Sequence to fold (213 residues):
Amino acid sequence: MDLVILIALTAFIVYKLFQSLGKEDKDLKQFKHIEPVLDSLKKHVNHVKNVEFEIISIKDANLLPEVKKVFEKLLIEEKSFSINHFIDGAKKAFKMILIAFNSSEIQTLKKLLALSVYEKFIKEVNDRIAQKIKYNVTLVGIKEANIIDANIMNDIVSVKLEIISEQIITVRDKDENIISGSASKILPMRDIWTYSKKIKSGNIWHITQTESK
Fold:
């Protein structure tokens, strides 16, 4: 916190100096070097504030102590990491994968799923094709998405997410007759998905494990 105050104070002094110089001398060419310094200081202050805010968020989050330690460690390596952004992205990936699974969008599945999970999904897609049935899932909405576990091993961070959603599930034959499920019944679903990535490898997470209950 002392570092933030010091940087903010420095930025404020430089800014005020620039303002006062501007009032006394309209020709500011000799002071142009101040602007990039000021911009740099402002960005650094905001960056430190964001990191501190995320540390506070992690401490206040409803997580197990060992899970909090994982995120605190991750934040040291990836200053831009945010739990809220992660959960938002994880929910979007959940929706995208359900849509891709329904429509057999193999390329989308390949991008978002780890190889072992991808092979499992593709096997189900091929089985449906062989049986000439159409499996359809409509995601009505995601009610909750809660982090229940996390770990770091060999520079790979993995986060286990419990996703509570409402879905409409039907299975139709080749003539579009419903042979299982209901087009009007909303089912409560509980999925546990594990999202993993190599630390400092960007923002692409892959689903490495799925479980439905």
In short: Residues 34-60 form the longest helix (27 residues).
